[in-house]
């Protein structure tokens, strides 16, 4: 039982997922089989990617992306700081240096194209963008910058399965797209992820790196296609199993409808918050493209204590969260040569004021009303006039 009356997130899981898992168990083939292959094909078709590989999680997808693009020591990779730490950690796994880049504005929390240009050095090799909350980064501008400066583009699309801009989905704009199926994401399998690309050379590297650097896989041997193999590179075991893949296939079929439901809830939230608490600002007010509406971020008025606000929400049984503490402020990221000088004032100011409100497909309009009422009461309670 949850301690929350209204939790931050919840999963749309039911009989279909149970039946799918049971069917896989009864087939007695639990890894790298038909379910995973079909999940990959269906996901590739859904986002419009030429290649898609299921992996253990998005963190390893990001690692594989850096490996497949041959990033390494001496290379700099431009990343947002207003993201989950894995975006930057992947750069460090391969010995390259993350350089943190400012967000666009208080309304657009995605990486700023102008700030990207300002941080390019002769060592810069790649950009990792993150579609914050499911809202697309300015991909046309970012691709243009990448093309001019000969940089790779990796999309951390953990928040954005199904999001699109100019009719093109997240994860297929850059060289590689990385998705997460962690339990609080729009499509969840517990742990899990997907890596997409349109480049055949990168696809081949990813396929081999994902499974120990081996040329022939267990499934091929099971099918009688191969009995021997070579190991051609230092590889990893970053695979996804059949149980998670079959859950992923069911979840993928629900994704579009669930994203539309999230959209309706966000529209309703915006309308209600604007009316009841106009001093709270809601980012992405006029964002181009179609969001996957992963998060419902709000910015508290300047001077309001976020800790007290979150405590007041908790007393009302409503779970809130923060997306994100900026990565460049973490202990493990101190002392890395991150800046040419100066900090990230916009990122830091937004990160201090941001609160994420509950959002998931099964949330009701009545519950949104309750959350909005609680926001109003909480603000009154902690700043008595
Ligand atoms: C969740 C998340 C990840 C990591 O995903 P895992 O599947 O948990 O490894 C990476 N980046 C962002 C932006 C995320 O939200």
Automatic annotation (TrEMBL):
The keyword 4Fe-4S does not apply. This is DegT/DnrJ/EryC1/StrS aminotransferase. Gene3D superfamilies: Aspartate Aminotransferase, domain 1, Type I PLP-dependent aspartate aminotransferase-like (Major domain). It comes from Thermanaerothrix daxensis. The active site is at 185 (proton acceptor). InterPro entries: DegT/StrS_aminotransferase (IPR000653), PyrdxlP-dep_Trfase (IPR015424), PyrdxlP-dep_Trfase_major (IPR015421), PyrdxlP-dep_Trfase_small (IPR015422). GO terms for molecular function: pyridoxal phosphate binding; transaminase activity. Keywords: Aminotransferase, Pyridoxal phosphate, Transferase. The keyword Transferase applies. GO terms for biological process: polysaccharide biosynthetic process. Coiled coil: none annotated.
């Amino acid at each position: 039982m949850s301690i929350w009356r209204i939790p931050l997130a919840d999963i749309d899981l039911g009989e279909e997922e149970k039946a799918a898992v049971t069917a896989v168990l009864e087939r007695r083939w639990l890894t790298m089989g038909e379910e995973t292959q079909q999940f990959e094909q269906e996901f590739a078709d859904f986002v419009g990617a030429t290649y898609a590989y299921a992996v253990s999680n998005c963190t390893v997808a990001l690692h594989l992306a850096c490996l497949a693009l041959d990033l390494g020591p001496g290379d700099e990779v431009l990343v947002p700081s207003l993201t989950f730490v894995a975006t930057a950690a992947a750069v460090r796994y391969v010995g390259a240096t993350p350089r943190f880049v400012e967000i666009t504005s208080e309304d657009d929390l995605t990486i700023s194209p102008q700030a990207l240009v300002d941080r390019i050095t002769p060592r810069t090799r790649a950009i990792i963008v993150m579609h914050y909350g499911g809202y697309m980064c300015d991909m046309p501008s970012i691709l243009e910058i990448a093309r001019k400066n000969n940089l790779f583009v990796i999309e951390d699309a953990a928040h954005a399965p199904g999001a699109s801009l100019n009719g093109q989905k997240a994860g297929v704009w850059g060289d590689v797209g990385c998705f997460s199926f962690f339990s609080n994401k729009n499509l969840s399998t517990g742990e899990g992820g997907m890596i997409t690309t349109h480049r055949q050379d990168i696809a081949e590297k990813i396929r081999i790196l994902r499974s120990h650097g081996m040329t022939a896989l267990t499934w091929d041997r099971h099918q009688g296609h191969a009995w021997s193999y070579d190991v051609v590179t230092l590889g990893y075991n970053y695979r996804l199993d059949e149980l998670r893949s079959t859950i992923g296939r069911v979840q993928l079929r629900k994704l579009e409808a669930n994203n539309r439901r999230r959209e309706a809830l966000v529209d309703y939230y915006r309308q209600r918050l604007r009316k009841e608490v106009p001093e709270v600002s809601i980012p992405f007010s006029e964002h181009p493209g179609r969001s996957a509406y992963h998060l419902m971020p709000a910015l508290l008025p300047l001077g309001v204590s976020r800790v007290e606000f979150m405590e007041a929400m908790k007393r009302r049984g409503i779970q809130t969260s923060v997306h994100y503490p900026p990565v460049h402020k973490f202990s493990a990221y101190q002392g890395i040569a991150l800046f040419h000088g100066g900090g990230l004032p916009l990122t830091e100011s937004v990160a201090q004021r941001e609160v994420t409100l509950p959002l998931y497909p099964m949330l009701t309009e009545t519950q949104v009303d309750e959350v909005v009422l609680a926001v109003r009461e909480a603000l009154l309670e902690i700043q008595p006039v």
